[in-house]
Amino acid sequence: MTPNNTDEKLTPHFSRGEFACRCGCGFANAAPALLFALEAVREHFDSPVQITCGCRCAKHNAETPGAAPDSRHTHGDAADIKVKNVPPAEVADYCETLIGARGGVGRYRTFTHIDTRGAAARWNG
């Protein structure tokens, strides 16, 4: 896989590098619907959004403890996020109203998972 330009701005607040697979393979293709949702989260809370996990290649996903075998991260339409000065539960509440039946929201103690899989999915991690 050819590395992407990690400095490339994908939206006003997010660059390609923020989504890059942590193994260094270069996989960093964030889906447009995910980018739209993340911009909405950023605007709603008027606070920076940190992508703690964006894309994962299949190899890195297999090596990630607790990762689903066909994780949405491997499709480029998921992100684990933290919003500065906002509790993860509050972020998840907003993400559920934003995504509705078009995606997944996972509630974790220290972060929120959001994806645009095209069907409703909800869980607690």
Description:
- The model has no long low-confidence stretch (mean pLDDT 95).
- The chain is built from three helices and five strands.
- The chain has 125 residues and is α+β, with helices and mostly antiparallel strands.
- The protein has a five-stranded mixed β-sheet.
- It has a single domain, classed as Muramoyl-pentapeptide Carboxypeptidase, domain 2 (2-Layer Sandwich), CATH 3.30.1380.10.
- The protein is globular.
- Helices cover 25% and strands 18% of the residues.
- The longest helix has 14 residues.
How many whole angstroms does the radius of gyration measure? 13 Å
How does CATH name the architecture? 2-Layer Sandwich
Q: Quote the CATH topology.
A: Muramoyl-pentapeptide Carboxypeptidase, domain 2
Low-pLDDT stretches are none
The percent range for strand residues is 15-25%
Q: Which outline best applies?
A: globular
Mean pLDDT: 95
CATH class group: Alpha Beta
Instruction: Identify the quaternary structure here.
Output: single chain
Order of helices and strands: HEHEHEEE
Compute the separation of the termini in Å.
31 Å
Helix content: 10-25%
Domains counted in the coordinates: how many? 1
Q: Largest beta sheet, briefly?
A: 5 strands, mixed
Q: How many β-strands, per DSSP?
A: 5
